[in-house]
């Protein structure tokens, strides 16, 4: 760490403010003070180097104009604060930045021991705040840590395909050469999944070193972050980057019949998918594979107009599907569902769901699709277990009741019409003539299956990337 990074830093005192996780930071000899939530602390850096007093630290945190807001403030209200501190409260020692060669940045005090760092800013994620967060917080933070512009690369996404192409052309290539890499990714689930797919598109060498992803949360649903105990405070996940551990992101593979296409540009255009040796279409996911109501509402709400409403867009589109404004009844999706499970002796077994019409078919590796939508309450962070949530066509009021229960700590699994089970995989044979009802969702990406087609999802055993999480 270059101590020259801290010239003229003001001195402050940090004290616990009552019994909660609130602190008071007072500077200017007590003339100025502001409240600080523990979730907004980034790190404490010991500045003593033997000649100096070891009780000197630099405190870095994200400050908000609106500190009464529960949860997360708008990025426009955030700024990075840096103070010299003497004797911080001892419970804050867990935020101490130690010299650790295995950490996300490598040995931050020693530039020659740092890992290769890329920063990817997904400019269209969520409500498009990632770029502003980079400008307001991240740029200054990296420079304060002594990570100079020549020691990392910053990229702003230029297209829908940008992250997947970067992942295959840069990340995978270097990982295959055995290079340790870390990626600060400002996005929603889509950015992570694009990285996973970009890497899965190429073979792995025996030298492969999994890149570490530090996910800064800027999407709409943020299922992976909300399910992985990432602290979605104003630090947007930076606490896990500094103080977390790297853990494998479990994934699944989805194969679909030849002729399946990825819908892009708000569904106006299509793109060819990757293919396997048999000519089937292949895509990987880490969050969710769905059909019926879930896939259709994600697809219908993926427009610039809907995106302005943040995660509210999902319930708006769901309402239109359950109670269509033209007065028609909700659609009943038609198809054959086959479920794969492992027997206690490890044998793969299949069983067909005993009905042909459906309202909800969703296989997931995560617990939460949104901050409070606990779709799979038995899932633990990154546990790798695939679970199926399904129910048949029901009156709209009953479907809304089920969702109310899902938002209430995942109680929907107690509803008599909801099936919830551990699975190894799932196959759908579609029996729908209208292409609108043949759209599936793989981690937010929408795939249209050809008429008479099928899709199959299975857990994937190859590991490609790690996520920084706090255990
Ligand atoms: N410069 C760009 N031009 C066009 N599309 C972009 C650009 N940058 C990102 N995108 C696309 O924007 C989408 C952002 O997805 P992401 O998952 O990160 O956010 P989200 O959908 O709002 O959140 P979540 O998936 O968590 O609900 C992706 O499909 C990505 O490919």
From TrEMBL:
Cited InterPro entries: ATP-NAD_kinase_N (IPR017438), Diacylglycerol_kinase_cat_dom (IPR001206), Lipid_Phosphate_FormReg (IPR050187), NAD/diacylglycerol_kinase_sf (IPR016064)
| Domain of life from the UniProt record | Eukaryota
The chain positions of domain DAGKc read: 112-260
Cited SUPFAM superfamilies? NAD kinase/diacylglycerol kinase-like
Please name the GO terms that the record assigns under molecular function: lipid kinase activity
User: What do the Gene Ontology cellular component annotations say?
Assistant: cytoplasm; membrane
What does the record list as GO biological process?
A: sphingosine biosynthetic process
Name of this chain's protein: DAGKc domain-containing protein
Q: Which organism is it from?
A: Gomphillus americanus
What taxonomic ancestry is recorded? Eukaryota, Fungi, Dikarya, Ascomycota, Pezizomycotina
């Amino acid at each position: 760490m270059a101590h020259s990074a801290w010239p003229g830093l003001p001195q402050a005192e940090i004290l616990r403010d009552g019994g909660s996780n609130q602190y008071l930071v007072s500077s200017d000899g007590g003339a100025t003070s502001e409240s600080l939530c523990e979730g907004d602390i980034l790190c404490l850096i010991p500045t003593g180097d033997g000649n100096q007093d070891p009780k000197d630290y630099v405190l870095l945190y994200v400050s908000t104009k609106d500190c009464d807001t529960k949860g997360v403030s708008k990025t426009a209200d955030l700024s990075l604060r840096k103070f010299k501190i003497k004797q911080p409260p001892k419970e804050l020692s867990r935020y101490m930045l130690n010299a650790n060669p295995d950490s996300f940045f490598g040995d931050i005090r020693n530039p020659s021991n740092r890992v290769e760092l890329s920063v990817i800013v997904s400019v269209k994620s969520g409500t498009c705040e990632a770029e502003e967060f980079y400008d307001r917080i991240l740029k200054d933070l990296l420079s304060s840590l002594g990570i100079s512009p020549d020691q990392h690369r910053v990229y702003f996404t230029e297209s829908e395909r940008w992250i997947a192409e970067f992942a295959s052309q840069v990340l995978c290539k270097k990982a295959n050469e055995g290079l340790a890499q870390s990626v600060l990714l400002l996005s929603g689930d889509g950015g992570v999944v694009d990285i996973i797919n970009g890497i899965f598109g190429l073979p792995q060498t025996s030298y492969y070193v999994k890149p570490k992803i530090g996910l800064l949360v800027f999407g709409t649903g943020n299922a992976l972050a909300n399910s992985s105990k990432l602290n979605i405070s104003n630090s947007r996940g930076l606490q896990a980057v500094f103080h977390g551990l790297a853990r494998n992101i479990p994934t699944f593979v989805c194969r679909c019949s030849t002729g399946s296409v990825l819908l892009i540009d708000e569904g106006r255009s299509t793109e060819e998918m990757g293919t396997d040796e048999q000519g089937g279409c292949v895509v990987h996911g880490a969050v969710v594979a769905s059909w019926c109501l879930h896939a259709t509402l994600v697809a219908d709400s993926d427009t610039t107009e809907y995106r302005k409403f943040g995660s509210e867009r999902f319930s708006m589109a769901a309402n239109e599907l359950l109670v269509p404004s033209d007065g028609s009844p909700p659609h009943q999706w038609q198809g054959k569902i086959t479920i794969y499970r492992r027997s206690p002796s490890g044998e793969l077994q299949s069983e067909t769901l005993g009905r042909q019409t459906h309202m909800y078919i969703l296989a997931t590796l995560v617990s939460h699709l949104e901050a409070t939508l606990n779709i799979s309450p038995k899932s633990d962070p990154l546990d790798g277990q695939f679970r199926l949530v399904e129910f048949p066509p029901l009156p709209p009021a009953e479907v809304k009741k089920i969702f109310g229960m899902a938002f209430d700590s995942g109680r929907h699994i107690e509803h008599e019409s909801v099936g919830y089970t551990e699975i190894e995989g799932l196959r759908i044979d579609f029996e729908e003539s209208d292409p609108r009802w043949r759209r599936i969702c793989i981690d937010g990406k929408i795939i249209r299956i050809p008429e008479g087609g099928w899709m199959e999802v299975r857990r994937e055993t190859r590991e490609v990337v790690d996520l920084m999480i706090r255990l």
